[in-house]
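Input sequence (319 aa), recorded before submission:
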Amino acid sequence: MQRSKSYYKLCGCFIVGILFLMSCSSQVRQVKVNAPPPPSQTSSEPTISEFNGIKHRIAIAEFVDKSGYGSNLFGTIDDLGGQASDILNSHLIKTGEFIILERSKLGALKDENQLQSKENSFLGVTALIFGSVTEFGTKTEVQDAGISKSKVQTAHAKVTIRMVDPKTGVAFYSEFGEANAEKTVSQVFGFGSKAGYDATLTDKALNGAVTKLVGNILNTLRSRPWSAPILDIQGPQIFIGAGKRSGIKVGQVLQVLAPGKKIKNPSTGAMVELPGTIAGKIKVVSQFGTNEWDEGSVCSILEGTGFQNTYRVELKENK
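Predicted structure, token format:
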């Protein structure tokens, strides 16, 4: 049977259309919901090389996974807590404003209740950050539109953090952030991607949740008073545990504070240190050390006597 040219032209157009739809069906669309970029990544924030202020020392403990998603009868299969704390660590490092205590130096410390026995390990540390992944889940929905189907994969994460004063063991800040990460895969006439769950959605959801916390974390840490410990006293020289990498400069004048009395708060049961008193002033004359952990400054005494190793130094108030 002889077929007309219009018949073959129609068939050709149909085949071309099918091929076009097949090429479109493999496209993947990824969306992060409610996950604005953290302040540390905006143009208004300083980069690591631009920041010239005094750097706070902070310690980030490995977060706890309370969601149950990353574990089964055989143990941990997905370290959600470790991922969340690593993400926060990365965001804070990018600001260049902090010296962050390595997780290995925290030892087994994972709970505020252990602070009393670990207090001496955190001299000069402004805050300890604890956290947990309190919610995490995934779901897959299929939307059938006849010749095409869409598979929508969604991951949801909720992360809670607490910042604790290492001198008192009392939490001074707590907040949570949550976010979704979504991926859509389409098929037309059965053609297209049939991949399983995209593991990158886990990172995207955790990052989105942590990102929501970064701005307030930065503002809270910036408002905390900076201090450094006295390492040793040798005659007229005082050695302090902060140097060039902490933002201290030769010629800078610092206040020496005698610690306040420690008392037990009867309403909370927590030990509270009363405000200290100014014992004198010192001036930075030289610096030493090769990294953030062994650095320090040598200071001369400008005012005051009877300094002790239990005293600490703070920035001199401008009057």
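Checked by second reader. The chain has two domains: 27-222, 227-315.
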